[in-house]
Specification:
Blueprint (H helix, E strand, L loop, with lengths): L7 E3 L2 E3 L6 E5 L6 E6 L3 H20 L2 H17 L1 H12 L3 H21 L6 E4 L5 E9 L3 E4 L7 H13 L3 E4 L6 H12 L7 E3 L5 H11 L4 E5 L2 H12 L4 E5 L4 E5 L5 H13 L9 E7 H16 L19 H16 L3 E4 L14 E4 L16 E7 L2 H9 L3 E2 L1 E5 L3 H10 L4 E4 L14 E2 L2 E2 L12 E9 L2
Parallel strand pairs: 7-8, 7-10, 8-9, 10-11, 12-13, 12-18, 13-16, 15-16, 18-19
Antiparallel strand pairs: 1-2, 3-4, 5-6, 6-22, 11-21, 14-15, 17-20
Helix pairs in contact: 1-7, 2-4, 2-5, 2-6, 3-4, 4-5, 9-10
Length: 479
């Protein structure tokens, strides 16, 4: 860890917290402290805000091609340092190295994607219908942004927000999760090396999120908030943003339904379930939570899924052959334990897993529950762990109603071989994304986001940059 920055990154310089405070970064596989990083307070946040505000005008005037080239160089540096970044991520977050390497590639692709979008920001020119004025439309950066990222994808969630902000010409303050600050600090160092001007990106690591973020949102100088995290925290931030009418993007919680119809290819369905459930140990907002399986195939699906889940190797993410690393911390594991216990008390049958192993670290085994009572707590809670809960259904209308019976609407998964049914069910699901016969929907080229309490706006894809741009209309009289 000696080469990884541990200070705040403000105005292009590495600095300690103004009061000298630090906070520990733990290894969830052992519980041991990896290192300490600077723990910012409100004074540090104001310094970061000032740096971003001072850099905004010049950065907005920077040529789109120059912004594009910085992103492209950063993309190349990330790829070159895949192993270093993957080991860093596994150390602070726990995911197996193979998954960490996959996230590095995923993260880098956001920079490549938005390097290409930076030079495609367009406007418009036309004569208005009454013939009196010409309309000139231009697009410009929204201004200084506050970006708040979660711990579960510590590198990719940073690039998914930083990429479009840089491409659009916005300056930023990045506030990473306190559990995983190292990936964000390493990313800041890469962007500095890639030529990003001082003050464009500022990274404030802190355990005092409320003290740091609320004054920024209420102060009126931050013009954009992009947040990924829980719905409860997102609702609080929306309220804090209202006073200064801060523009917001919210990627919040999920409670994804996974629908397996009687005509599904069960091989595809089980493969999809393994991805939709076990990506990142189930610690993903896109994770399949509620498995609705047609009664005629439920027993066979459960048997196959339990067999696959039971074969996964649990252990430290740095160890060869490990498929499932630790959960992020003991609090997260305790939540999973409580949800499984509640389901079992209500009559669920454990097909595999379900018992916390002894020893250090925050490990929990891949678990499959069958015959889950619809009233179980895990039916209306984001599990964020390696637990698949299977319920049965008989009719299409019934399962759609049950799938939509949740305040969240991020993603849904549909497995069927019938084209008409595939389209019909997908159109009726109240979600922002659908995986049709696949367990993976995330892609930098696709618009990521949900409906209802799963968020506002979209990240990635051609529309991802729109969240960081404003329109200006210029009326020009026709002479």
């Amino acid at each position: 860890m000696t080469d990884t920055p541990t200070q705040l990154f403000i105005g292009g310089a590495w600095v300690d917290a103004s009061d000298g405070a630090t906070m520990p970064v733990d290894d969830p596989a052992t519980g041991e402290v990896l290192c300490h990083v600077a723990d910012a307070g409100p004074k540090d946040a104001k310094l970061a805000e000032e740096a971003a505000v001072q850099a905004q005008e010049a950065w907005a005037r920077t040529a789109p091609r120059a912004r594009s080239e910085i992103l492209r160089r950063a993309h190349e540096l990330i790829i070159e340092r895949t192993d270093v970044l993957a080991h860093l991520m596994t150390s602070e977050m726990g995911k197996p190295l193979a998954e960490a390497r996959g996230e590095v590639a995923y993260a880098a692709e956001f920079f490549r994607w938005f390097s290409e979008e930076a030079v495609r920001i367009d406007g418009g020119f036309t004569t208005l219908p009454d013939g009196r004025n010409r309309m000139l439309l231009s697009r410009r950066p929204v201004g200084p942004c506050l970006l708040i990222t979660p711990w579960n994808f510590p590198l990719a969630m940073g690039t998914r927000k930083i990429g479009p902000a840089i491409a659009a010409g916005c300056t930023m303050i990045l506030k990473p999760a306190p559990q995983t600050p190292l990936s964000s600090l390493a990313l800041a160092a890469i962007l500095k090396e890639a030529g990003l001007p001082d003050g464009v990106l500022n990274v404030v690591t802190t355990s005092r999120a409320g003290e740091v973020c609320e004054p920024l949102l209420r102060g009126g100088r931050i013009r954009k908030l992009s947040f990924t995290g829980s719905t409860a925290v997102g609702q609080l931030l929306l309220a804090q943003s209202a006073e200064a009418v801060v523009r917001t993007s919210m990627e919040l919680g999920g409670n994804a339904p996974f629908l397996v119809f009687e005509d599904a290819d069960l091989d595809k369905a089980v493969d999809g379930a393994m991805v939709a459930k076990m990506r990142n140990m189930g610690e993903a907002c896109t994770a399949a939570n509620r498995f609705f399986v047609h009664r005629s195939v439920a027993e066979e699906f459960g048997r196959r899924l339990a067999e696959r889940m039971g074969a996964l190797v649990v252990g430290p993410g740095t160890r060869d052959g490990v498929d499932v690393g630790p959960l992020i911390d003991r609090r997260g594991r305790a939540k999973v334990e409580e949800l499984v216990a509640d389901a079992v008390e209500r009559g669920a049958h454990v097909l595999v897993g379900g018992r916390t192993p002894e020893g250090p670290g925050c490990f929990y085994p891949p678990t499959v529950l069958a015959d889950v009572d619809p009233g179980s707590r895990l039916m209306d809670t984001e599990i964020f762990g390696p637990v698949a809960a299977i319920l049965t259904f008989d009719e299409e209308d019934e399962v759609i109603r049950r799938a939509n019976d949740t305040p969240w609407g991020l993603v849904g998964y549909v497995f069927t071989e019938g084209l008409d049914r595939a389209l019909r069910v997908s159109e009726r699901l109240e979600v922002g994304m659908v995986g049709l016969n696949t367990g993976l929907v995330s892609n930098p080229a696709a618009p990521f986001g949900g409906v209802k309490q799963s968020g506002l706006g979209r990240e990635g894809g051609r529309v991802g940059i729109d969240e960081f741009l404003e329109y200006q209309y210029l009326a020009v009289p026709v002479s």
